[in-house]
Amino acid sequence: MPVEKDLKSILKKLEYRDDAQVQKQIVDNSLQVRIRMGQVKRKIVIMSGKGGVGKSMTTANLALAFARAGHKVGVLDVDLNGPCIPKMLGVHGKFEITADGAVPPIGPYGMKIASMEFFLKQEDTPVQWKGPMELSPVWLGLMEMNVIREFFADIVWGDIDYLFTDLPPGAAADKPPVIAGFIPELDGAVVVATPSEVTKAVVRKSIHYARSAGIPMLGLIENMSGSLCPECGTAVPMYEGGCADLCEEMDLPLLGKVPFDRDLAKACDRGVPLLEEHPIAKYFDEIALHLHEFLESKKN
């Protein structure tokens, strides 16, 4: 059986008709997104390109740091198949559906949290896509992108200072540029990496790909830069070297280094954010301050 080469042939096979005026819906969605995003001062995506580097943990704690500093913050979890931001922030509930749109639940420090998790009946319920499974790779990708576009169009963020979007993990290199394209006047992307040479090799490609798609790169956060000793509080190296060489090569600011800590792992698992006086919380506070100052200087 020949492989379908383009979307047109796939839709023809399905005897597709635009009875639902899909093109008009997409245009309307795009206009609505511009209206919603117009109330958000700063829009930042968190990406990696490599799974297992702690991207969602970094997103959650970076957002907490900005909220602790007094900023009005929103977090959008667009990992549709494995949402975990609500768990890490200890947020439960559902969207409140109003005439103006979907109002997201409120998390720590008044943060607004939006995630596919709030649509699932139970915590262990998987996201199940309905549709022609024989065309699942293409069809599911289209459905995911439509859902994410509607997330941006339908969620009522109101006037907030920062919106952090946690992008899908792994090697789906096409998703970050597509999703970032949904966000008008995107300030840029923060990249998360570990000092592992394997990770840096993958992240390097992800940075190249994102830049070629026109996504501004704000900087890199080196996660798991060491292991924080529970006795003395010093960071013991876990890898040889670090991410400074990658940042120099890619002309990318190193926003900060965050060591691995058992307290942070427990906090994310339990959904109870670290106290602001905790050493790891201070690492994120410093990164947030640097990033905020950079964006302010860029604006001025």
Q: How would you characterize the overall build of this protein?
A:
- With 300 residues, this protein is of the alpha/beta class.
- The chain has a single domain (21-299), classed as Rossmann fold, CATH 3.40.50.
- It is 40% helix and 19% strand.
- The protein has ten helices and ten strands.
- It has helices spanning 7-13, 22-37, 55-68, 85-89, 136-154, 175-180, 197-212, 244-250, 262-270, 279-299; strands at 40-47, 73-77, 96-98, 101-103, 112-115, 160-166, 188-193, 217-228, 235-236, 254-260.
- Strands 1, 2, 5, 6, 7, 8, 9 and 10 form an eight-stranded mixed sheet that branches. Strands 3-4 form a two-stranded antiparallel ribbon.
- Helix 2 (22-37) packs across helix 5 (136-154) and helix 3 crosses helix 10 (279-299).
- The radius of gyration is 20 Å and the shape is globular.
- The N and C termini lie far apart (58 Å).
- Residues 1-5 and 132-139 have low confidence and may be disordered.
List strands and helices in order, with pairings.
Elements lengths: L6 H7 L8 H16 L2 E8 L7 H14 L4 E5 L7 H5 L6 E3 L2 E3 L8 E4 L20 H19 L5 E7 L8 H6 L7 E6 L3 H16 L4 E12 L6 E2 L7 H7 L3 E7 L1 H9 L8 H21 L1
Question: What is the strand content?
Answer: 15-25%
> Number of DSSP strands?
10
Main sheet?
A: 8 strands, mixed
Assembly state here?
single chain
Name the CATH architecture.
3-Layer(aba) Sandwich
Give the averaged pLDDT, no decimals. 83
Question: Unreliable segments (pLDDT under 50, ≥5 consecutive)?
Answer: 1-5, 132-139
CATH class: Alpha Beta
Under CATH, the topology is which? Rossmann fold
Give helix % range.
40-55%
